[in-house]
Fold this sequence. Notes:
metal-binding, Pentalenene oxygenase, iron, 3-stranded antiparallel β-sheet
Amino acid sequence: MGGGGMEFARVPGNRPVVGHFLRLRRDPLGFLESLPAYGDLARVRLGPWWVFVACHPEVAHEVLTDFRRFDRTGPVYDKVRQAMGAGLATAGYHEHRRQRLVMQPAFRHEHLRGYVEVMREQVSAATAAWQDGQELDLTEAMFELTTGVALATLFSSRLDMQETRELRSALDVFLSGLTSRAALPGIGRLPTPGNRRYARALAHWQAQVRRLIAGYGEPGTGQDDLMSRLLAARDEDGRALSHQELSDQVAVLLLAGGETTSSAVVWAIHLLSGRPDVLAAVRAEADAVLGGRAAGLADLPRLELTGRVVKETLRLYPPGWLTLRTATRDTTLGGHQLATGSMVLVSPYLLHRREDFHQDAARFEPDRWLEGPPATRGAYLPFGAGATKCIGEEFGEAEATVILASLLGRWELTPTGGPVTCSARLVLSPASFPVRLTARTPSG
């Protein structure tokens, strides 16, 4: 399937059978950043499919907001839904609309106070055993922390450390394998050790979700958590979420609550380590506002610089770095004719690093947010856009701000490894980030 109309510039690296997949696999971020040179809508081949990449913010915004022309359909989403279920992150527009109406009340602003209190408690508990001079992998530590927050806000429960590490290990294999399977559909049918590891990881992940739901208390037993709100929620026709729908939503919330927020926090600390001036200012803000305690909801409006650090981190390293839509009718996009079934990729990572929309785009500069968001629609998309924009945007930004301010007020986190390698899976994560802990006393 291809596009007619105007000719597409030829993107180098198109190999027999796999197309551009090897370039995307070996250097995904560099490959994406190279694509705007080939037009506002570039055309690449991933395995058997020609895929269009929206390289201009306005084109990307059009794809994400016009559900009548572009939806979450097609063979790639079929593959993703087999693994992740049909939750908010994967459902087609009409089903997504019903699910969102059911789930929206659980994410109302008035519930944020209770959620942030859980975040504050989890930060204190997770760092209670940290010791001066200790070395740890911050990527693992933050995943344990944010997964703890997700479980406590969702189920009023927790996993022990071993269970959390097993869950992360399974997610590592699952998320990496899912990316390959989405691009090269035949790869999952081969009887390779990698495929067996993927199958075991997926089974572990799905079994963990089922166990958590099965172990949840009876509805109406007094829990003030997301799960109790989801169980009580009804759509316009008075229908509750089915058991399968509930399982799918829990899987997405656990993944988003654990993997994406932890990645954002680690990337923020990585970026701050390269800007001692900004790090000193963030610490001074934490000292003035928190005085060594963990942050709470009332502190968030005063943690202005920390909030800007989070926004700038999400610009440079958006966890959801790639998203896909499929044309549901013959249409025109970016001056090109697209046939029904054409797949269009939107990459917030690509769009966030365009110099013509973000001055000195590669530079970590939180104060650019003093002027507010970019004027061009689609130039900043860490949570998506339109009707399918992430329902947990306020939750996620609050959590990252709480964790970052609380950690930096109490600890110096000195990187001890070499350059950070990026794991560009379903979520854009730092593969590992070893740091040495030094306890600090708040100034003032």
